[in-house]
C-alpha cells in the first residue's frame, strides 16, 4: 500500500517540476527564435517558437564593425565576474561569520549596521561624488566591482548557513584553543561550503549582470563590460527607432528594435546558459562535499 | 549605550567628511568662475579673429549621446582633434553616454559634482538646470559664435534665453514648422484605394474605409495623439501647444493662454478620437502597447502617421525594407492657417557651471556650424574615405558609421542629401517653411517653482485620466466629470493662473 | 538599540552595569580582536559606499542648488513630501497597492520556492534535477520588457493567443488589459514564474546541508514520505523562511517600477491596482523632472519599511530568539 502511494506522489512531483520547467523555458525559446527572425515579420506577426524568416541580420547589425569590441567586453565581464566574486565571497563570509558567532556581544550591532544599509540610501548624487572625486574609482578596474562586494542580503543568507552548522563542533575547537581566525578558515569555510557555493553563484550572476557601475564610473571603452555595451546599444537603438533622429543626409539604417531586444537577451544570457550546467556541477559537488563533511 | 555612542560618532564623522567634500567642491568651482570672468575681458579681442594663435591652450570635453562608432573614435583622436587644435587651440575630447542619461541621470550627476564639460539640452531641461545653478551663463561669450549666429536663426537663440540671459547655444537650422500638423499618408495605399489625395478629415476616413476593405490587417493611425492634424476640424483657431495642459491661439494677437483640457475644443477633439478608436482606425491595443504602434508603422502595417517636413524621405527608408513600393506624402486636412514654428534649431549646447573656459566651448560650438568644410568634416568625415560627392553635390556614404550625429548638426545652409532622395522631395522640403510664423510663445520659458506641487500632481492626473480621454480610449461624457474633478483637486486653476501671469508679463515685454 | 532590553535581565543589576560593561568591553575587545579583523573589510565597504553617501539624505529636506552645495543649500523642510501627501487619495492608493502586491509576491513566492525545493529534495534522478534546476533559473535573467512583450502576445484582445483560444472554445473574448483586478493575478503569476527558481535554490541548498542521518532514522521508523516532509524537511526550512521574510519585509513599500512598466505598459486602465508608489512617483515627480520629490518618497518608503522590520524582528524574537535579524 505504502509504496504505491509513494510512487504516485513521486510521479506527481516529477510532473510538477517538468511542467514548470517547460513554462520557464518558453520565453527563452521565443527569444532565440525572435533574434533570428526578420524585424518586419516580428513587428507584424509577433513572436513564435520558430524564427519568422530565418536570418542573422540582427546579429550582423549588432556586431557590425564591433566584433572586436564585443569580444573585449566579454573578456572584461568574465574578468570582473571572477575577481568580483572572489573578493565578495571573502568579504561576505567573514562578515557573516562575525554576526553568527554565538555569544559575541556586538553581533547584533554588526547585523544591524549592515541591515540598515539595505533600507536607507542617500541616493546617487553623494555616492557618485564620493566614488569619483574622493575614492577615485572612475575609469578603474576596481570601480567595476568594489562597491558591490558586500551584498547584505547574501551576507545574511551566509550567516544563516553558518548558524546551521552544529555548535558543538565550534565549541570543541574552542576548547582545543582555536581562535576565531582558525575556526573561520579551517572549520566554518569547509563546513559552510553549501552556502558558500550558493552565494558564489549569486555573486557571479550579480557581477555578470551589472551595468550600473560601468554606466556611472566608466568612460574608457576598454573597460566596457558586455552588459553595459548592450545597454548602451539598446538605448541608442530605441532612440533611433523613436524617429527623433532625422537623418536626411546619409544612408539610413533602420534599427531592428524588436529582434535586437531578443538578440541582446541571447547574447547576455547565453553564456550563462552554457556555463550554468558546469557552474552547477561545481555547485552540486560543493554541496556533496559539504554534506559529507557535515 | 556604547552602541549608541558608536552610532552617533559614526554619523557625525559622516557628516563632517561629506561637508568637507562639498566645500572642497565649492572651492574648486570658484576659481573656475573667476577664470572665466577674466576670460570675459578678453572676449571681444578674440571674437573677431578666431584663428587660435593668440589663445592659451585649453581642454574641452564634449559629451554626446548614443553609441560611439569606430570611425568616430578614430576621427576624434586624429582629424577632429587636429582641426579643433588648429582653429581654437583647444584639445577636444568626446565622451559618449547612453541615451537614457540625456537630460538627467549621469548628466545631472556630472553637472552636480562640478565636472567641466558641454553637451546638448532642450528648453525643459534647461529651465530646471538653470534653477539649480548647473549651467554657465553664456551671454558674454556669444560674440565668439559669430559664424554660427550667421547660419542659425535668431528665434532659435531666443528659445534658450532666460531673463535675457543666453544659457545654451542653438545648433542646426532646418525646416521644422508645423510638426505633426500634417498627415503622413501611405500614398501607395491611397492610390491602390483609387484616391489621389487627402484634403479633409472626411477624405482621410474614406481612405481608411477603402484601404481597410482591401487590407483588413492594416491599422489606420499609428499613434495616439492627433490633436494637431485634426485641429482643422475641431476648431477655427490656430492652436499651438506649450505643454500637455496649455495651448496658444496663434491667430489671435493677444496673451491669452488656453487651458486645453477645460476647453470646448478638447471635448470635440476627444469625440473625434473616440470615434476613431471605436471604428478601429486606432487599434484596441493602442491603450496598452504604444511602442507596438511605432513598430506597426515601421513595418508598413499602418495607413497614416503624423507628418513633419523630413518624414516623407526619412521614414520611407525604414518602411521600404518591409514594403519596397511604399511612398509617403504629407497632407494637411485644412487650409488657410499659417504653419507654426518653434524656431529652426535642432538642439542647443550648454556649458557646465564648473567649466574653466566657457568661451572656448562657445568657440567650439561655432566651429560646428562655421562653414561648409568644417560641417562636412564633422557630419560626414573625410571625402574619399568616408563619403563621395557626385556632380550635383549629392552624397554617397562609403562608411555607415555615424560621427557627430547628423540630425544634431543639420543646417539647411550646409546639409547634403543622399543620392536616393528624389529631387521633388528636396524641393518640397526646402520650401516647407515658406509663410510659416514663429509661435508667439517661442522663447517663453515657464518658471514652475511657485507651482511645482500642482504641476507634479497634474502630471499624475494627466497620465491616468486625461490621456485616455484625449486618445479616445474612454468616452468623454462618462469619463470627463471625474477627470475634471481630479484636475481641480490637483490645482489646475492655480497652475493656469500662474502660467497666465508669467506669460502676460513676458508677452508685454516682447511688444 | 532595541536589543538593550533583553528579556530576563534582572532589574537590580542596572546600576552596576555601566562600569562592569565598560571593563568587560575592553576585555572582549582583546578577546574578540580577530572578529573585528574579520568584519573590518565589510565595515569599510559599508561605510564607504553606504554610510558616507547616506549624508545625502539631508538633500530631501533641502532645495539643492549647485553653487551652495549639499550643505549650503537652503532648507526646504517637508516641502518635498507635499505633492505626495497633499493628494491623500493617490498616496493611500499607491501605498495600499504596493503593500498588497508585495505581500502577495512574498506569500506566493515563498510558497512556490519552498515547494520546489522540497520536491527537488524528494527526487532521486540527478540529471533531471540538474536540468530542471538550470531551466527554472532562466526566467530570472529575462528582463521585464521582454516578459511584457511575450505576455502581450498572449493577452492582446484581437491577436492574443488566449483570446483566440477562448474564441475557438466558443467563449467571449476577454479584455485583459482593462481588468485591474485580473491583472493582480497576472502580476503575481509573472512574479512566481520569474523568481521561484531563484528562491528554490536558496532553500534547496539548506536542505542539501541537512544531515542525512535524520532521514535514515525516520525511514527506519517507517515514516511515510509525506510524514518526512512535514516532520523533518519543513521544520528544517523554517529559520530560512523567517530570515527571507524578515529581509523582504523592509522592502514592503518599495516596488519594482520596471516590472509594472514592462508588463502593463503603464496602461491607465490598470492603474487602480498597479499604481504602486514607484509608478506614481515615476508618472508625477520624475515626469516633471522633480527628482527632489522622488528622493523624498524613497525616504518615506525606507522609514515605513524600517518600522515594519522592527516589529517583525520583535515577533520573530518571540518565536525563536535565534531567528532574529539583529
Write the layout of secondary structure elements.
The complex is a heterotrimer of chains A (294), B (511) and C (326).
Chain A: H1 2-35, H2 39-45, H3 57-63, H4 67-100, H5 107-119, H6 124-134, H7 152-163, H8 167-175, H9 180-191, H10 193-209, H11 212-217, H12 226-241, H13 257-293
Chain B: H1 2-48, E1 58-65, H2 70-77, H3 79-88, E2 90-97, H4 105-112, E3 118-121, H5 123-131, H6 146-151, H7 154-158, E4 161-162, E5 165-166, E6 169-171, E7 182-186, H8 187-192, H9 201-214, E8 219-221, H10 231-234, E9 239-241, E10 246-249, E11 257-259, H11 264-279, H12 290-298, E12 302-307, H13 311-322, E13 328-331, E14 340-341, E15 347-351, H14 358-368, H15 372-380, E16 387-389, E17 395-397, H16 406-409, H17 423-431, E18 437-438, H18 452-470, H19 476-490, H20 492-510
Parallel strand pairs in B: 1-2, 8-12, 14-18
Antiparallel strand pairs in B: 3-15, 4-5, 6-15, 7-12, 7-13, 9-10, 10-11, 16-17
Helix pairs in contact in B: 2-3, 18-19
Chain C: H1 14-31, H2 33-54, H3 69-72, H4 79-85, H5 88-122, H6 126-137, H7 144-155, H8 161-168, H9 180-208, H10 212-220, H11 225-249, H12 257-264, H13 271-274, H14 277-286, H15 291-319
Amino acid at each position: 500500500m505504502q509504496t504505491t502511494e509513494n510512487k504516485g506522489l513521486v510521479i506527481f512531483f516529477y510532473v510538477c517540476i517538468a511542467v514548470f520547467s517547460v513554462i520557464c523555458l518558453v520565453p527563452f525559446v521565443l527569444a532565440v527564435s525572435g533574434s533570428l527572425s526578420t524585424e518586419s515579420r516580428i513587428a507584424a506577426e509577433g513572436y513564435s517558437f520558430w524564427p519568422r524568416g530565418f536570418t542573422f541580420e540582427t546579429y550582423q547589425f549588432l556586431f557590425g564593425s564591433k566584433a572586436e569590441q564585443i569580444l573585449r567586453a566579454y573578456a572584461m565581464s568574465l574578468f570582473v565576474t571572477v575577481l568580483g566574486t572572489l573578493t565578495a565571497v571573502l568579504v561576505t563570509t567573514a562578515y557573516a561569520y562575525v554576526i553568527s558567532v554565538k555569544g559575541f556581544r556586538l553581533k547584533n550591532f554588526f547585523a544591524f549596521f549592515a541591515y540598515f544599509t539595505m533600507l536607507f540610501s542617500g541616493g546617487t548624487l553623494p555616492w557618485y561624488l564620493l566614488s569619483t572625486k574622493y575614492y577615485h574609482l572612475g575609469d578603474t578596474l576596481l570601480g567595476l566591482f568594489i562597491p558591490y562586494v558586500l551584498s547584505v542580503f547574501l551576507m545574511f543568507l551566509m550567516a544563516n548557513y553558518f548558524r546551521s552548522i552544529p555548535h558543538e563542533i565550534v565549541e570543541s575547537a574552542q576548547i582545543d584553543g582555536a581562535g576565531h581566525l582558525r575556526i573561520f578558515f579551517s572549520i566554518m569555510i569547509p563546513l559552510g561550503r553549501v552556502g558558500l557555493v550558493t552565494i558564489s553563484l549569486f555573486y557571479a550572476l550579480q557581477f555578470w549582470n551589472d551595468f550600473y557601475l560601468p554606466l556611472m564610473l566608466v568612460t574608457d571603452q576598454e573597460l566596457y563590460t558586455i552588459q553595459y555595451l548592450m545597454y548602451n546599444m539598446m538605448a541608442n537603438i530605441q532612440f533611433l527607432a523613436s524617429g527623433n533622429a532625422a537623418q536626411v543626409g546619409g544612408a539610413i539604417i533602420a534599427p531592428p528594435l524588436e529582434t535586437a531586444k531578443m538578440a541582446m537577451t541571447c547574447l547576455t544570457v547565453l553564456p550563462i546558459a552554457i556555463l550554468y550546467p558546469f557552474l552547477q556541477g561545481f555547485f552540486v559537488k560543493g554541496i556533496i562535499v559539504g554534506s559529507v563533511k557535515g | 549605550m556604547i552602541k549608541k555612542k558608536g552610532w552617533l560618532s559614526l554619523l557625525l564623522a559622516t557628516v563632517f567628511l561629506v561637508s568637507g567634500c562639498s566645500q572642497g567642491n565649492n572651492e574648486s568651482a570658484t576659481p573656475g568662475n573667476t577664470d572665466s570672468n577674466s576670460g570675459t575681458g578678453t572676449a571681444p579681442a578674440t571674437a573677431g579673429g578666431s584663428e587660435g594663435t593668440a589663445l592659451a591652450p585649453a581642454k574641452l570635453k564634449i559629451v554626446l549621446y548614443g553609441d560611439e562608432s569606430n570611425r568616430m573614435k578614430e576621427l576624434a583622436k586624429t582629424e577632429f582633434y587636429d582641426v579643433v587644435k588648429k582653429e581654437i587651440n583647444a584639445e577636444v575630447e568626446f565622451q559618449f553616454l547612453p541615451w537614457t542619461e540625456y537630460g538627467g541621470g549621469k548628466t545631472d550627476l556630472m553637472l552636480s559634482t562640478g565636472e567641466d564639460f558641454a553637451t546638448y539640452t532642450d528648453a525643459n531641461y534647461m529651465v530646471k538646470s538653470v534653477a539649480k545653478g548647473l549651467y554657465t551663463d553664456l551671454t558674454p561669450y556669444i560674440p565668439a559664435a559669430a559664424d554660427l549666429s550667421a547660419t542659425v536663426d535668431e528665434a532659435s537663440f531666443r528659445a534658450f534665453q532666460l531673463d535675457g540671459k543666453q544659457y545654451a547655444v542653438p545648433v542646426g537650422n532646418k525646416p521644422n514648422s508645423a510638426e505633426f500638423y500634417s498627415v503622413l499618408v501611405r500614398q501607395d495605399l491611397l492610390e491602390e484605394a483609387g484616391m489621389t489625395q487627402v484634403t479633409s478629415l472626411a477624405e482621410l476616413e474614406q481612405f481608411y474605409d477603402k484601404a481597410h476593405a482591401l487590407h483588413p490587417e492594416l491599422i489606420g493611425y499609428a499613434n495616439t495623439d492627433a490633436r494637431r492634424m485634426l485641429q482643422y476640424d475641431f476648431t477655427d483657431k490656430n492652436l499651438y501647444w506649450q505643454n500637455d495642459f496649455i495651448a496658444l491661439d496663434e491667430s489671435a494677437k493677444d496673451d491669452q493662454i488656453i487651458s486645453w483640457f477645460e476647453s470646448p475644443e478638447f471635448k470635440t477633439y476627444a469625440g473625434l478620437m473616440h470615434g476613431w478608436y471605436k471604428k478601429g482606425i486606432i487599434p484596441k491595443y493602442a491603450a496598452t502597447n504604444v511602442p507596438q504602434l511605432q513598430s506597426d508603422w515601421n513595418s508598413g502595417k499602418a495607413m497614416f502617421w503624423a507628418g513633419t517636413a523630413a518624414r516623407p524621405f526619412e521614414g520611407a527608408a525604414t518602411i521600404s525594407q518591409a514594403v519596397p513600393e511604399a511612398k509617403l506624402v504629407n497632407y494637411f486636412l485644412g487650409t488657410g492657417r499659417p504653419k507654426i514654428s518653434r524656431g529652426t534649431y535642432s538642439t542647443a549646447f550648454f556649458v557646465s557651471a564648473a567649466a574653466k573656459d566657457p568661451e572656448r566651448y562657445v568657440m567650439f560650438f561655432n566651429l560646428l556650424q562655421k562653414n561648409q568644410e568644417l560641417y562636412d568634416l564633422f557630419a560626414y568625415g573625410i571625402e574619399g574615405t568616408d563619403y563621395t560627392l557626385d556632380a550635383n553635390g549629392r552624397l554617397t556614404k562609403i562608411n555607415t558609421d555615424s560621427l557627430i550625429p547628423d540630425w544634431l548638426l543639420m543646417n539647411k545652409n550646409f546639409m547634403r542629401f543622399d543620392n536616393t532622395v528624389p529631387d521633388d522631395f528636396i524641393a518640397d522640403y526646402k520650401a516647407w517653411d515658406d509663410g510659416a510664423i514663429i509661435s508667439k510663445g517661442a522663447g517663453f520659458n515657464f518658471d514652475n517653482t511657485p507651482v511645482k506641487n500642482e504641476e507634479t500632481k497634474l502630471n499624475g492626473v494627466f497620465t491616468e485620466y486625461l490621456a485616455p480621454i484625449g486618445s479616445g480610449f474612454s468616452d468623454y461624457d462618462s469619463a470627463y466629470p471625474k477627470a475634471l474633478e481630479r484636475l481641480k483637486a490637483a490645482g489646475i486653476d492655480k497652475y493656469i493662473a500662474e502660467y497666465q501671469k508669467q506669460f502676460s508679463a513676458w508677452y508685454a515685454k516682447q511688444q | 538599540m532595541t536589543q538593550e532590553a533583553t528579556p530576563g535581565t534582572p532589574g537590580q543589576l542596572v546600576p552596576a552595569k555601566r562600569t562592569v560593561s565598560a571593563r568587560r568591553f575592553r576585555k572582549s575587545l582583546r578577546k574578540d580582536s580577530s572578529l573585528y579583523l574579520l568584519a573590518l573589510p565589510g565595515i569599510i565597504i559599508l561605510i564607504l559606499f553606504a554610510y558616507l553617501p547616506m549624508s545625502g539624505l539631508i538633500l530631501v529636506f533641502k532645495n539643492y542648488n549647485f553653487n551652495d552645495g549639499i550643505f549650503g543649500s537652503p532648507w526646504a523642510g517637508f516641502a518635498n513630501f507635499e505633492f505626495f501627501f497633499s493628494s491623500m487619495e493617490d498616496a493611500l492608493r499607491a501605498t495600499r497597492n504596493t503593500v498588497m502586491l508585495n505581500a502577495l509576491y512574498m506569500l506566493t513566492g515563498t510558497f512556490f520556492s519552498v515547494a520546489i525545493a522540497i520536491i527537488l529534495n524528494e527526487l532521486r534522478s540527478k540529471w533531471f534535477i540538474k536540468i530542471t534546476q538550470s531551466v527554472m533559473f532562466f526566467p530570472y535573467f529575462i528582463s521585464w520588457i521582454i516578459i511584457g512583450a511575450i505576455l502581450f502576445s498572449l493577452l492582446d484582445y484581437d491577436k492574443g493567443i488566449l483570446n483566440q483560444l477562448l474564441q475557438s472554445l466558443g467563449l467571449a473574448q476577454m479584455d485583459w488589459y482593462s481588468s485591474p483586478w485580473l491583472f493582480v493575478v497576472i502580476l503575481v503569476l509573472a512574479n512566481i514564474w520569474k523568481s521561484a527558481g531563484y528562491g528554490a535554490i536558496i532553500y534547496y541548498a539548506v536542505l542539501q546541508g541537512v544531515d542525512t542521518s535524520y532521514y535514515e532514522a525516520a525511514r527506519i521508523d517507517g515514516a511515510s514520505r509525506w510524514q518526512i516532509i512535514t516532520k523533518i524537511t519543513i521544520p528544517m526550512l523554517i529559520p530560512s523562511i523567517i530570515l527571507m521574510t524578515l529581509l523582504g519585509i523592509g522592502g514592503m513599500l518599495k516596488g519594482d517600477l520596471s516590472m509594472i512598466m514592462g508588463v502593463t505598459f503603464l496602461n491607465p486602465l490598470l492603474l487602480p491596482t498597479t499604481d504602486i508608489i514607484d509608478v506614481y512617483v515615476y508618472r508625477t515627480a520624475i515626469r516633471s523632472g522633480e527628482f527632489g520629490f522622488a528622493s523624498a518618497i524613497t525616504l518615506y518608503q525606507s522609514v515605513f519599511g524600517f518600522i515594519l522590520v522592527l516589529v517583525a524582528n520583535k515577533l520573530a524574537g518571540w518565536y525563536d530568539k535565534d531567528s532574529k535579524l539583529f
